[in-house]
Each structure stands twice: as structure tokens, then as C-alpha cells.
Amino acid sequence: MAISIELVKELRERTGAGIKECKDILEQTEGNMNKAIEILRERGIEAAAKKATREANEGLIGVYVHFGSRIVGMVELSCETDFVGRTEEFGKLANDIAQHVVALNPRYITVDQVTDEAVAESGQTREKFVEENVLMAQPFVKEPSRTIEEKLKEAIAKFGENVVVRRFVRYEVGA
């Protein structure tokens, strides 16, 4: 099946994958955009696992101030190079995660930070506690079908660098 350049361009814009990879996947999926995106997403997750061990010492701080200026979230989002850290897309991701912090108020970044004592004090099951309190396990507020962890893995695949949430803070007036 002949794949049009417009279809390749659309897949590239939607996923950030290389032109040849987009063309090859579209040929493999016989032009099915959704299947092609899913395959690229799976490959991105595999690539993200390989990049997760690389140092991420650059980046920026994303900030979201909620309407009325009574709640603010800040997130330190790190990457490997200042080139990626200065891109508009990386900045948008940092700000989106800061907005998520304001909306869902996580207490921990990763599951391994959760203590048995915290779970016991909450009176919840560990699974429910993790879902409600661990940033990486929470459904992304702007796209609930994916977790923050999945969102970061997609960013790693797209940027070609390790991307890490180093820390976050949420301030609320009167809290």
C-alpha cells in the first residue's frame, strides 16, 4: 500500500517519531493511524525504560496558579539537556503537571516513597492509597485515560531523553 506524505506528516506531528519510522509503521498498519500511534507508543515505552537510567540534570520549574490565586503548584521537571529543557513542549508538560498537582494534591512522587504507616493511618487499601496519593500512579487530570507515569514515558520517547519529576510543592491559602 502506498502511504501519502500527508499521512506520514500527520503521524509525525502527533507522535514526534522520525519520518522513516512513521512511514514504515504506516505501511505495516496499512495506513491505520490509530494502530500506528499505538505501536509507536509501545515502542516509546520500551525506549523510555532504556533511557530511565540516564542522568537528567537540566530542566525547569513548571508553575500553575489556580484562578483566584489561592492555590499554586510548582514542579521541578528534569531532562538531560538544556536544549530539550528550553522547548515550549517541555515547558507545557511541566506546567500541565503543576496543574495536576493543584487539582489532585498528591503526597508522593513514586510508590516506593509510600510507607506502610501512611497507608495504615489512611484506613484505605494500599492500592487505593497509591492511586489517590502517588503522582506517578494518578490519572492525568487533563487526560484521565493515562497516568502521569505514562505521560512521562511518552515524553521520554518524544524528546529522546530521560524526563524526571524531581520534586513538587502545592501551596493553598489557609491550609
CATH-defined fold name of the largest domain: Tetrahydropterin Synthase, Chain A
The CATH superfamily label of the largest domain reads Elongation factor Ts, dimerisation domain
Number of strands: 5
Mean pLDDT: 89
Please give the largest β-sheet. Answer: 3 strands, antiparallel
Task: Give the helices and strands, then pairings.
Elements: H1 5-15, H2 19-28, H3 33-51, E1 58-65, E2 71-79, H4 82-85, H5 88-104, H6 116-122, H7 126-133, E3 139-140, E4 143-147, H8 148-159, E5 164-172
Antiparallel strand pairs: 1-2, 2-5, 3-4
Helix pairs in contact: 1-2, 1-3, 2-3, 3-8
Keywords: Cytoplasm, Elongation factor, Protein biosynthesis
InterPro entries: EF-Ts_dimer_sf, Transl_elong_EFTs/EF1B, Transl_elong_EFTs/EF1B_dimer, UBA-like_sf
Region (Involved in Mg(2+) ion dislocation from EF-Tu): 81-84
Can you put this structure into words, describing what you see?
Residues 30-121, 127-174 form the Translation elongation factor EFTs/EF1B dimerisation domain. Residues 81-84 are annotated as: Involved in Mg(2+) ion dislocation from EF-Tu. Belongs to the EF-Ts family. Associates with the EF-Tu.GDP complex and induces the exchange of GDP to GTP. It remains bound to the aminoacyl-tRNA.EF-Tu.GTP complex up to the GTP hydrolysis stage on the ribosome. There is one protein chain. The protein is an alpha+beta fold and 175 residues long. The protein folds into two domains: 5-51, Helicase, Ruva Protein, domain 3 (Orthogonal Bundle), CATH 1.10.8.10; 58-172, 2-Layer Sandwich (Tetrahydropterin Synthase, Chain A). 50% of the residues lie in helices and 19% in strands. It has helices spanning 5-15, 19-28, 33-51, 82-85, 88-104, 116-122, 126-133, 148-159; strands at residues 58-65, 71-79, 139-140, 143-147, 164-172. Strand 3 (139-140) and strand 4 form a beta hairpin. Helix 1 (5-15) packs across helix 2 (19-28), helix 1 packs across helix 3 (33-51) and helix 2 (19-28) crosses helix 3.
